[in-house]
């Protein structure tokens, strides 16, 4: 009898502990931070690009999760600096957020930039999605592979021209020129992706470094050719296209994450609350469909994981920026 009573008490204790744990989890879920008024997500680029589309897909689901309007605000200019400053100077209350890509980490290396590094004035929250970038050439050129194109540029009587639309494009174009040993290359800077792609299709410029999403339709039509993608592995959107690593560029790696940031000093409970909501948002089937439609992969990272990745990338880019300076 004593044994039976003992086991019963143990069972009751176990059930009681489970109830406490379930109750705590419920309280934690209910107590996660939520905004008390409409939230603004600042996109530091013009409407219509991949980052803008990601912001709108995330904003739609976040508004459902929070029960508050989430508004996308486009503030293009100065390679993303204008939009970043809008968030940096905002209240540290989680109601004004920045959506950005790895170009943010290159801002302080641009020749005309002055002031504090915006990365140090922002709090990383969560990576929404990631995608590969692409090295793209005009469909009018005869090269079929990246090595063939590099050889063409090395031997052409006319210098090859590289189209760049942002600081990331400038940096990786310079990196390709140096790593591939292309002589007399010309960098042509554009303010918008539309005019860049139009000139690339017309072969006014020969090659560009671009996100995969805007170039993919033109690649399928043959007006542009994706020579290589820049991730660690091939992308599902174009599985027949090799990575730059496979094509022989041993240091040419660039994965284009899209992530949320808040103003520096925003309390941890707010940062974690937004991150929790992002993780929930990217599990929503409609959001997943929208992100995958951008040739990207839903992520929804924790703040700690994003912070670690960000610090690693900051250090890696610092080394590369010395080796491949932006002129």
How would you characterize this protein structure?
This protein is an alpha/beta fold. The chain has two domains: 160 residues, Bordetella uptake gene, domain 1 (D-Maltodextrin-Binding Protein, domain 2); 98 residues, D-Maltodextrin-Binding Protein, domain 2 (3-Layer(aba) Sandwich). Helix content is 44%, strand content 19%. Strands 1, 2, 3, 4, 5, 6, 7, 8, 9 and 10 form a ten-stranded mixed beta sheet that branches. The longest helix is centred in the first third of the chain and has 30 residues.
Labels describing this entry:
327 residues; alpha/beta; D-Maltodextrin-Binding Protein, domain 2; 2 domains; 10-stranded mixed sheet; disordered N terminus
Order of helices and strands: HEHEHEHEHEHEHEHEEHHEH
The helix-and-strand class reads: alpha/beta
Under CATH, the topology of the largest domain can be stated as D-Maltodextrin-Binding Protein, domain 2
Average residue pLDDT: 87
How far apart are the first and last residues' alpha carbons, in Å?
86 Å
Strand content: 15-25%
The helix count comes to 11
CATH class of the largest domain: Alpha Beta
Unreliable parts: 1-30
Question: How many distinct domains?
Answer: 2
Radius of gyration: 23 Å
Q: What is the CATH architecture annotation of the largest domain?
A: 3-Layer(aba) Sandwich
């Amino acid at each position: 009898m004593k044994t039976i009573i003992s086991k019963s008490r143990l069972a009751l204790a176990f059930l009681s502990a489970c109830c406490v744990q379930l109750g705590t989890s419920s309280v934690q879920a209910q107590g996660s931070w939520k905004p008390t008024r409409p939230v603004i997500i600042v996109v530091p680029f013009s409407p219509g690009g991949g980052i803008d589309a990601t912001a709108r897909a995330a904003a739609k689901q976040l508004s459902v999760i929070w029960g508050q309007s989430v508004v996308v605000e486009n503030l293009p200019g100065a390679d993303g600096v204008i939009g970043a400053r809008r968030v940096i100077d905002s209240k540290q209350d989680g109601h004004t957020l920045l959506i950005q890509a790895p170009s943010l980490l290159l801002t302080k290396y641009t020749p005309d930039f002055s002031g504090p590094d915006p990365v140090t004035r922002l709090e990383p929250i969560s990576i929404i999605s990631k995608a590969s970038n692409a090295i793209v050439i005009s469909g009018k050129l005869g090269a079929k592979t990246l090595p063939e194109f590099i050889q063409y540029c090395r031997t052409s009587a006319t210098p090859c021209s590289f189209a760049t639309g942002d600081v990331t494009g400038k940096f990786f174009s310079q990196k390709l020129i140096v790593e591939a040993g292309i002589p007399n290359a010309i960098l042509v800077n554009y303010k918008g992706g539309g005019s860049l792609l139009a000139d690339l299709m017309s072969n006014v410029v020969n090659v560009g470094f671009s996100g995969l999403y805007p170039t993919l339709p033109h690649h399928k039509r043959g007006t542009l050719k994706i020579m290589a993608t820049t991730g660690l592995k091939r992308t599902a959107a174009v599985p027949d296209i090799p990575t730059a690593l496979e094509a022989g560029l041993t240091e040419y790696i660039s994965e284009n994450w899209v992530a949320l940031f808040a103003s520096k000093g925003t309390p941890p409970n707010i940062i974690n609350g937004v991150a929790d909501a992002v993780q929930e948002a990217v599990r929503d089937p409609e959001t997943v469909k929208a992100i995958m439609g951008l040739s990207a992969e839903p992520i929804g990272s924790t703040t700690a994981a994003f912070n670690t990745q960000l610090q690693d990338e900051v250090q890696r880019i610092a080394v590369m920026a010395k080796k491949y300076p932006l002129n």
